[in-house]
Here is the input.
Amino acid sequence: MKRNISNVFANICSMFVLIILSGVLAMQLADIAIAAQEEMVVSHEGIATVKAIDMNQGIVKLAHGPIASLKWPAMTMDFRIEDRALMQGIKVDDAVTFVFIQSNGDYVITHIKSGK
Ligand SMILES: [Cu+2]
Here is the structure.
């Protein structure tokens, strides 16, 4: 009888250890999943005609074609420039291909080059 009770106690203890360990493991897996999501930056690609360049504000107005990855139709809109050096050699009326990301509610160009 005494042995039985200590066996039951040992079983309960090991069950608790298992529950705690699996809880810790689950939390770590969740952390890893969140970190992976935060690192994943989705970029979009399009072609456009440059309508205006405002180097002071760091904004370019583009008449862009449809952006399939965002289900956007063609439209004219402003984009923020990640780095003003990207705009070197690009002028109004140029046909460009460009890559952009969504960041803090802005659409930010990360790559842009003349030609299609
Ligand atoms: Cu647009």
Remarks:
- The radius of gyration is 27 Å.
